[in-house]
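Dock zinc ion; give full complex structure.
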Amino acid sequence: MQLSEKTEEVVKEIELFIQYGVQGHEQHGAIALLQRYKNDAIALQLMKSFYTSLPEIHEEAIGRIVFINKKDDIFLLGLSTTRHAYLYLATEQKALLLGENGQEFSEPEIFTLFGYLDAQDFFEKYPTFISCEEYKPVSASGSRFCPACMAAVGEYHLLGCPVEICPWCDGQLSRCGCRFEQLGVDVLEDEEDLEELERILEEKGRIPYSEEQYPSYPSAMDE
Ligand SMILES: [Zn+2]
Ligand SMILES: [Zn+2]
């Protein structure tokens, strides 16, 4: 995949910025964290954005990246250094610094996009990032998003996505006959049938997207 080549370039670029920008005693930890996220396009964009703007950021290394929220393919991530905490928007293409946590933000309407009332509501929920879970890196062979419907790891596929696994037979849900059997029909005719399918799927235990489903995608597309 071209993505991995580009990712390697980004890693090298960030390494260089760390060597020139981060204080000596923090460099080792910074490189270790970079290695941990070296296959994760979103984290790399975040690190690149942080380290390329270093002069104002006190030459500190990133200590921890935390997951806060997401909306479609946009992640709201927290980044903490020894003495500071910053909030970022990040996708696989780009990361944007929103500001230092708890301080005034240039675009406070961002918070409503993620379901918070306003910036204050957000800061009350997240006065610090200490209790937030770590943003987990994707593995070398995986992808954070379903290549067909863009569901993220842990989310349900869009109904009809060819990557979704059938909870009744472990086959490909869009191909196997289980949906007809379970609904007792020969064809799915209307919206109502689809809603009923979704209901019984959830009752059975729908299988959300996980990285392991990723490599099976090319074969799923073969006729
Ligand atoms: Zn999918
Ligand atoms: Zn099935």
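Observed: The chain has two domains: 2-125, 142-223.
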